[in-house]
């Protein structure tokens, strides 16, 4: 094999991936004196040099409309990625509908994520003990809480007190002040709470105060541009403006981009010796060696790497047979209504921070425990509503001046409640290696099998009834089509919260890794991304990925310094 270009010299740890988990691993390990090499499949990306924060959509091709290569719009931070990547296919079993999003850029999904960062609660770590479905985590909330505290302070999270069952509050000093609710959000709050539905300040990884730092200073959000474009001032958390620059400043981190890792290479004593990767620009293969390998490539890619490593047809670290199994994604559905009381309201700056200022946490745990609901796990609503182009369904069939006036009147009068819910792992949802298809680098691709169970379908039906109750309380005109819940649900993978393909556990016979992400079969291969999740609660996973990566990285640093991985 050729020497790894740009990766000369010894390293202690190879980190595959540079997003939330990879960035955290690099930050913690280099700070502890560990020499690290990040291999990132995507291209280099510097938001401070590349992001166009202020250009109007009218300056963009197609006025910024999404295209296959830029699914979220022309100015979006996504670079070379999406649900489809040229030359890098994936397949599906018959009857499955799954969409696998891959960012393909330094910083991964942290460059363009939603930034909603709720903590998992005690029920979320022990779901089997509560309802007999899925599996319990080998750790509980109390094990992770100190790491949540540290991550919130480290990345900058704004939010307020929740005071609700299974929605843990952060200790004093962890959170920045939340932004004030917008007018539509205040209206939703009044309507929802009159129905007994709680509304709270969302916990969001966007700065509302400056975070000074000698290496990576970050400024408070100035409430003016879409976060999806990236952030040159570092207000929203992304590893490219925080963890990665800080890790590089130690002098112990090197990064190789356009490095598509194809497999883990084994050495003596049943340990990994390093990895093999393909230069995406030249197609040349390289091998690099290290004392330990951290897989932080994302749930699907981490599973693919392990399945393509080790014993042919079985994969590496798969003595349990659970590798690729237990795949989940968040359920998703969107509900909208036209609210007459918001029509024609005075114009003012309603931008705020990117995304919602408030949200609706799940509130019916007691009813669920008593068996009064026909689904076993919770959901929450993320809230939308501000000035912008109104929904077509909210406009009358008029033309010319009348249409212009109708658009002005309806702008800001459409509100939305977007459901995100928990999926319970099922035997029919998994990923495996397709025996007949390879990507342009010659690497076998993943094949996905996916289906929702009755629990997820019933959950969405319940959520629609709750959303419509709020809309009716506001005398709103519901804009949703009258379709069965199965037809309004997002496809698997579309919410980009896929988790669980190499779940953690207390028993090597039924899990792939221990509570620190260390594979049972190969003690110097550590997983730090969403693949290790034993369940996929309705709460967005990134904060928990960061907290678990912090916890796992500190343990790995201790093992390296003690000589346990000599």
UniProtKB/TrEMBL annotation:
A Pfam family matched by this chain, by name? GMC_oxred_N
What domain of life does the native source organism fall in? Bacteria
Please list the residue ranges annotated as the Glucose-methanol-choline oxidoreductase C-terminal domain: 436-549
**Names of the cofactor(s):** FAD
Looking at the record, the residues that make up the Glucose-methanol-choline oxidoreductase N-terminal domain are 140-329
Q: Which UniProt keywords apply?
A: FAD, Flavoprotein, Oxidoreductase
FAD-binding domain location, by residue?
Answer: 11-43
Which SUPFAM superfamilies does this one have?
Answer: FAD-linked reductases, C-terminal domain, FAD/NAD(P)-binding domain
Similarity comment: family membership: Belongs to the GMC oxidoreductase family.
Q: Which PANTHER family match?
A: PYRANOSE 2-OXIDASE
| Name assigned to this protein | Choline dehydrogenase-like flavoprotein
């Amino acid at each position: 094999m050729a020497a790894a270009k740009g990766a000369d010299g010894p390293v202690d740890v190879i980190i595959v991936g540079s997003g939330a988990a990879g960035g955290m691993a690099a930050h913690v390990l280099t700070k502890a004196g560990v020499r690290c090499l990040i291999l990132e499949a995507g291209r280099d990306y510097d938001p401070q040099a590349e992001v166009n924060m202020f250009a109007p959509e009218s300056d963009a091709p197609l006025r910024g409309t999404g295209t296959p290569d830029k699914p979220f719009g022309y100015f979006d931070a996504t670079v070379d990625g999406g649900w489809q990547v040229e030359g890098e296919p994936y397949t599906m079993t018959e009857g499955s509908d799954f969409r696998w999003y891959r960012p393909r850029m330094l910083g991964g999904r942290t460059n363009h994520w939603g930034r909603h960062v709720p903590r998992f609660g005690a029920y979320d770590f022990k779901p089997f003990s509560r309802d007999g479905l899925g599996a319990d985590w080998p750790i509980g909330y109390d094990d992770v809480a100190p790491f949540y505290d540290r991550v919130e302070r480290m990345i900058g999270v704004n939010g307020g007190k929740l005071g609700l069952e299974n929605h843990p509050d952060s200790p004093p000093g962890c959170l920045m002040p939340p932004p004030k609710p917008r007018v539509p959000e205040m209206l939703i709050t009044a309507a929802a709470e009159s129905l007994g539905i709680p509304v709270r300040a969302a916990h969001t990884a966007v700065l509302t105060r400056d975070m000074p730092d000698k290496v990576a200073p970050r400024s408070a959000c100035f409430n003016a541009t879409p976060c999806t474009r990236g952030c040159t001032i570092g207000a929203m958390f992304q590893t490219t403006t925080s963890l990665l620059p800080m890790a590089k400043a130690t002098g112990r981190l090197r990064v190789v981009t356009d490095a598509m890792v194809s497999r883990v290479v084994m050495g003596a004593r049943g340990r990994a010796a390093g990895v093999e990767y393909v230069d995406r620009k030249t197609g040349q293969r390289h091998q690099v060696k290290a004392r330990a390998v951290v897989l932080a490539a994302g749930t699907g890619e981490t599973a693919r790497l392990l399945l393509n490593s080790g014993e042919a047809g079985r994969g590496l670290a798969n003595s349990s047979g659970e590798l690729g199994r237990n795949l989940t994604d968040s359920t998703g559905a969107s509900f909208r209504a036209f609210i007459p009381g918001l029509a024609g309201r005075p114009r003012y700056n309603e931008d705020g921070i990117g995304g919602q200022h408030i949200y609706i946490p799940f509130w019916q745990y007691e009813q669920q425990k008593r068996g009064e609901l026909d689904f076993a796990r919770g959901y929450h609503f993320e809230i939308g509503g501000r000035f912008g182009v109104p929904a077509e369904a909210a406009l009358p069939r008029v033309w010319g001046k009348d249409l212009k006036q109708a658009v002005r009147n309806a702008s800001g009068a459409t509100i939305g409640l977007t459901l995100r819910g928990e999926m319970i792992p099922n035997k029919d949802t998994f990923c495996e290696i397709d025996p007949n298809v390879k990507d342009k680098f010659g690497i076998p691709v993943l094949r996905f099998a996916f289906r929702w169970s009755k629990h997820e379908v019933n959950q969405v039906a319940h959520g629609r009834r709750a959303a419509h109750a709020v809309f009716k309380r506001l005398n709103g005109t519901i804009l949703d089509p009258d379709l069965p819940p199965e037809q309004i649900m997002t496809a698997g993978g579309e919410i980009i919260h896929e988790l669980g393909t190499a779940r953690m556990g207390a028993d090597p016979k039924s899990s792939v890794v221990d509570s620190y992400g260390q594979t049972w079969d190969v003690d110097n291969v550590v997983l730090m991304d969403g693949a290790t999740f034993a369940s996929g609660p309705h709460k967005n996973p990134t904060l928990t990925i960061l907290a678990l990566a912090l916890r796992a990285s500190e343990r790995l640093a201790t093992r390296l310094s003690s000589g346990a991985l000599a």
